[in-house]
Amino acid sequence: MRQLITHFTDDDLYKFTMCCAVIDNFPRTRVKYRFIDRSDTSYPPGFARLVEEQVAMLENVVITDEEIAFMQRRCSYIPSWFYIFLKGFRYDRRLVSVSQDAEGHLSIGFEGNWSEVILLEVKVLAIVSELYYIVTGQAGGLDYDDYAVRSAAKARRLIEAGCSFSDFGTRRRASFEAQDTVVRSMKECAAACPGPGRFVGTSNVYLAMKYDLTPVGTMAHEFVCAIAGMYGPLMANHIAMNLWAHTYRGALGTFLYDTYGWRIFSLNFSEDFANMFKGLRVDSGDNREQLDLIVDKYRSLGIDPRTRQVVFSNGLNVDSAIELQAYAADKCIPSYGIGTHFTNDFDGVRPMNIVIKLTDVKITESWPFYCSTCKLSEDRGKYTGDADTVARFLATLHLDSTGAPRQE
What is the pTM of this model? Predict the structure, then answer.
């Protein structure tokens, strides 16, 4: 099997920005991650071995001077010391364990120093997704010429509707070529299709470099999840916002707020944070309801919500983004991060519904035990974590089993 990931920056920007913040604030913290297939897919025999081989191949992938120069040019908020770390970074297959049961279900576990394990998540998800289509024979039927035309048509509709949008599709792409086709086609369309909207860029740093675009991204739920595991969920957002501001000094000011739902975040989101951060990202719940909560919160703090960016990334497609634009345009500065719908939308191909989540954390390697953590979000009942941890976090946050506020 050919090597699927051959470029160090063939990864989402948020993994690098979070890695930098982790080293800056939690250099000795250790974590565990777990692969989750929400579709309970039965993978072909021998699939686990192929994943292991691809992970081992990552050990020969190192960052190049060209990639560093591009990131220094386009990501000036990242401190220079981080590139010294990246130049010496090597992937380590020993941090990953892969197995497969008799029914074909795939198990992947990760354990190690947070600053090392964090750079494996997106790459392993992309490997599993592309590898699945190769092994099942679906990859041979992917029509990339047609995909280029369809991708340009998606971009045109979004631009004409006034949407500012980005590609967020690395993790569950049908293939590297699929994402490459999307980014190239959308850039070409944006150049030829003047309109009120715009193609902002891509989360994939390598493709941003290849097509001279802006790499887009800030953070993911795992940053808040790990902090909650160490210090508890009540103040996890507060701690995360302080530490993010400490590392980036006002840059990368879009905060992903929904790790434990709007209610506790809103209690943490004081006026100083609302002025410090440029906006918020909506990644779960009903987009309109979440936007209304955000607007009301800003207004309660004396801030005009129309001056704040709100990034929507909750399972969007072109139709839902355009519909949301009509609702959000006069309430905030809306933008849209669209993933699977961009990079895995081939006729007859079912996109993978796979994630990798941080499940356990300990503050330093000297601690004799891990603390479990979970993600609750605004999709009530759709939680990630073991049942005991979810129940403990819900109780701590004064929520019932459905995620609704408990009657006090």
Answer: 0.97
Of 272, 334, 336, 337, nearest to 307 by C-alpha is 334
The answer to whether the beta carbons of residues 247 and 25 sit under 8 Å apart is yes
Can you say whether residue 137 is alpha, beta or left, with left for phi > 0 and alpha for psi between -120 and 50 degrees? left
Tens of pLDDT, residues 163-202: 999 999 999 999 999 999 999 999 999 999 988 999 999 9
At 399 the three-state DSSP class reads: strand
The answer to whether 32 and 107 are in contact (CB under 8 A) is no
For 125-139, the pLDDT digits (tens) are: 999 999 999 999 999
Please tell me what DSSP assigns to residue 307. Answer: G
The residues near 272 (Cβ < 8 Å, ≥ 6 apart) are: none
Average pLDDT over residues 194-214: 97
User: How far is 48 from 53, CA to CA, in rounded Å?
Assistant: 9
Burial of 287 (0-12, 13-18, 19+ CB in 10 A): buried
Half-sphere exposure of residue 267: CA atoms within 13 angstroms, side-chain side: 10
